[in-house]
Amino acid sequence: MLAQAPSLQASYDLYEAGQLDEAAALLTEALATYQAGGDRLREAVALSNLALVEGQQGHWPQAHQHIDQSIALLQGNAITDRRRPRILAQTFTIQGQLHLAQGNENAALESFQTATTLYQGAGETAQAIRSQINQAQALQANGFYRRAIREILAPLRQQLATQPDSLLKAEGLHSLGEALLVAGSTDQAEATLEQSLTVLRDLGEAGLSGEDQARLPVVEAAVYISLGNTVRSRQDTDAALDYYRQAGQVGTAANRLRAGLNQLSLLVDTQRFGTAATLWPTLWPQINAPATSRDGLYARLNFANSLINLGPEHQGPDWSQLNGFLTETHLQAQALGDRRSDAYVLGTQGTVALKQSALGRAKTLTEQALVMAASVNAVDMTYRWHEQLGQILEAQDDLNGAITAYQTAVNSLKRLRTDLLAINPDLQFSFQQSVEPIHRRLVSLLLEAYEQETGQNTANKANGSGAARLGAARQVLESLQQEELNNYLRAACLDLEAVQIDQIDQAQSTAVIYPIILPDRLATIVSYPGQTQVAVKAGENKAISAAEEILELYPTPIAAATVDNALQGLRRDLINRISLGYRASAAQVYDWLIRPIEPDLEANGIDTLVFVLDGSLRNVPMAALFDGEQFLVEKYALALTPGLQLLAPKPLQDQALSTLTFGLSEAVTVNVPNSDRTISFSPLPNVPAEIERISTLIPRTNVLLNSEFTRDSFQTALRDNSATVVHLATHGQFSSNSNETFIVAWNGQTITIDDLTVALEATATNQDADVELLVLSACETATGDDRAALGLAGIAVRAGARSTLASLWQVDDVATSQLMGNFYEELATKRVTKAQALQSAQVSILNNPRYRRHPYFWAPFVMVGNWL
Hints:
alpha/beta
């Protein structure tokens, strides 16, 4: 609020005290006085202040009328006061705040941009910075977190770093921290937010203006809440609750309410129902006040979602009480004219109806929510309500309708592969809680429909509509894989020149296997690509055309928990180089996954298996599966792909081999990127011998070893040299956190996924050629990280190499050196595919008496991507 005279100052004091009616009355009186006296400057100020108060009261038509009148006065010729540009900037700021409160983010951004330009022209540096922060908040409110970081907050951070501590500096850091959190940079977000908190603590109230003194606890509470959200994203529940409690001890009533709401949602999410049941009644009197802004509506929705998940069975309110609360929220959203929030309210009302098994009402409300969401292009909500519609139709035994609804939800998620990752941090979705279940449920329903149509529950031939069902299920599996990698990398990651892997001419003896772990079964779809010869199903004789693709379904009834437990046990047994306990578990997984399809593999002359693995299946090497006599790698060449599509493939044997080889043989301690942890890696004494053998086999080899191998020299070598193969004989770690996935260079330097991407892109750009094969011979997945194999897939996809060869765990140094030498010998001297070269290399170690056929020494090496 602007204060230019005693009456304006008095109205400001009333506004700050929350006495809105009194402030509005005083401003109306002052406005009449200024109009009568011809004081156009103060008239404009009074109009803008009155608009701000009316916005707080929810009187939106009057607020917009008065702010427009104020701007018109200030832009006219009647006011020549030198203060006019600054006051006009302040007025545009108020206009932006009004737009933002109503959910008109684009209009708010335009107002804030105008204000910034005016402040800069008036030489008001501090206010220009505050206005830039407002722009960033408008972008964030519209979901454009990365754009806010890239265009405003990152440059602003550099500017703030040169300035002394101030409330403005703390606010800028807080805004950047929030954006970094939603964009997925959790560690950077936490560090930035802690820096903001340090600035606030050092400031105190000494030397602050009255307005800044009033804002200080508000900003402090907001930072505590953001820190709570940050540690919550890492599942540190106790730390998050502590931050929320600290936020509740400072700031305004609105901050305390938001902190309490976040406490409640976290308590419910972590099933601390007793504490949640005690907390929610204390929040009810505060949250039940009418919402006059989008923030207020979101607070009510946050509360309602927590109570829905708490439910009457855990001492939450009864459904009728919650329905009444949501009806009031619906009316408030309508009064505010906020169609986005109203769509969320309608969908949430549908959720309550679904909980009550009132399926007809649930369907009506959900369909209304979808219409409303579509009218404001709210894709983030569209997927939610289509998923809910799918649940309703499923409960009504409308299988086809449910499939259509879930498919639409999946398609909506594809549209979210842009900057629009979340609309509000309190309402954002997570991959494992929301995205993954939609895909899995859709696959399950497609397979159920397939089985109903074919009338079979054993291995099925896919023809006609059955083939369409299996084809659709396979596409959903691709989407799930891609969404998981997008979530991991926080970027759309498969924007490549791609071809379907089942359309590759050289893949006629290749089967592509898509297992998916569903709650009640392990469902495996196998694709046998079109062939020029007769393709048959075991025991049958059916000729097919060259373009026809065979799809098979092999369902194994088994609980998901049983599969996951078996895979965890197999992984533990495989990395125990002494025990033979792996045999039983490797045989069990073989029986589930391979034995049902084996007759068809043999009948179709398959010699290469390409797996699109799901979930915990990624953590175990398929090579180690055991039929009681032979390992799978002894029968087939094997490869993995993180999706159905690859870079357009070129058989490596058709190209002249050249390598860029980097090695580190000495022990090293590494500071994990974006973390305060360190990891000590043991020496790799056989790396020089490994590199020497590669150089002997492939004369066109450039080598950087130990002190020559730095982060900078790595990037320079890739930029300045052309090579079909990049070989890294050094330590590294694959983690489920992309920020903690890295490769180790000399003196503990780390090369991250982003570093690798930039370097390999430079190679492709400068040398007009892609890297065909990236080899990571000594990297490993992070210990105790069930989803760490995502890091391997993430590096494989993000790096842009057509193929990546890496290991799931760190292998004996001697065995690694021998296996790599054998692999390159196969590539250099024989016309074989990369998968076949790896198969031969693994079998050579398997048959070496020194290693006792134990999979620990040879199984973890996997080929990801193009296997040709």
